[in-house]
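testing teh design pipeline on a random one, pls ignore if ur not involved
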């Protein structure tokens, strides 16, 4: 039996296990998206904060116009940014992202962070990023339960076929499912062999929430940002354990890292501007690791979190 390349959300929708992440795709975005779709990717993971939704939409449109894909073939994810957490701003923010992409609906719409920041009018600055435009990070008092009510409005309006969250801790996820009328379909988290989060992954599974991993290559995902901890962290792509397993299966270390996640039912969203590597990433679901391989990779865990907003401001210590 061939390995599965998709998984089923609680909504019944099918999502590819391997997608193309648009974080840090800042040059030739339309061409990158077009080439990803041409290579066979059918999941595009974006966000308003990535500042490339207009260009990503152009790449999608080109692929559709050339008959490479139909809109319904592509699973598109976007995310609500922190400055739009007030209930009255959620729906307009989703509509803005849809207009930028040039599509009528998202397949998945996520709360990007469990962080509420002071509203910044898109007419003043868009995307608004972390500060208020004057270099000041200003938290707001908008509670998650009202933000989620806005997300449910997005879902009810047919603007997203599924809604979910990103960067949520277990406690927040448990609280959310208690009051949510529409349950979160997906939890997107940092997940790699240095940071496996097994209890959070198991909790999501117990709650019926699918998990998507970002930063699957660990520190390699952060080097171009000159991330201090990533610069001090040994490469997973060159780790002896990963290299040994890759050699055994005649695969790349990147393929092994991705398959370690997808074989356990966790979706991945790597990005690569190199067509050959992008193709290899997509093909990472076409083989299976052995049980001892998965065990050896998981044993590399150091609880080493790389994505932590506290580095931006002490009031953003969501994992404290």
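output:
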């Amino acid at each position: 039996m061939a390995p599965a390349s998709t998984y089923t959300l609680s909504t019944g929708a099918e999502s590819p296990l391997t997608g193309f992440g648009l974080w840090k795709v800042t040059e030739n975005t339309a061409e990158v998206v077009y080439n990803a779709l041409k290579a066979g990717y059918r999941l595009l993971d974006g966000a308003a904060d990535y500042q490339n939704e207009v260009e990503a939409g152009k790449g999608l449109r080109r692929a559709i116009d050339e008959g490479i894909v139909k809109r319904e073939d592509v699973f598109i994810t976007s995310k609500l940014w922190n400055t739009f957490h007030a209930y009255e701003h959620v729906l307009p923010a989703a509509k803005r992202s849809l207009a930028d992409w040039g599509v009528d609906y998202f397949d998945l719409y996520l709360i990007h962070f469990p962080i509420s920041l002071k509203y910044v009018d898109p007419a003043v600055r868009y995307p608004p990023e972390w500060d208020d435009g004057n270099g000041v990070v200003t938290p707001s008092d908008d509670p998650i339960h009202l933000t989620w009510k806005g997300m449910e409005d997005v879902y009810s309006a047919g603007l997203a076929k599924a809604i979910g969250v990103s960067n949520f801790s277990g406690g927040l996820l448990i609280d959310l499912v208690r009051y949510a009328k529409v349950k979160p379909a997906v939890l997107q988290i940092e997940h790699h062999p240095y940071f496996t989060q097994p209890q959070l992954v198991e909790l999501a599974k117990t709650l019926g929430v699918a998990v998507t991993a970002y930063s699957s290559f660990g520190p390699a995902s952060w080097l171009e940002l000159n991330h201090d901890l990533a610069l001090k962290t040994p490469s997973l792509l060159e780790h002896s354990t990963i290299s040994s397993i890759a050699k055994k299966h005649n695969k790349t270390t990147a393929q092994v890292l991705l398959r370690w996640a997808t074989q356990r039912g966790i979706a991945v969203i790597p990005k690569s501007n190199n067509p050959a590597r992008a193709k290899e990433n997509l093909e990472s679901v076409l083989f299976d690791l052995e049980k001892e391989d998965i065990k050896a990779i998981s044993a590399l865990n150091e609880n080493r979190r790389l994505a932590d907003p506290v580095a931006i401001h002490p009031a953003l210590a969501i994992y404290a």
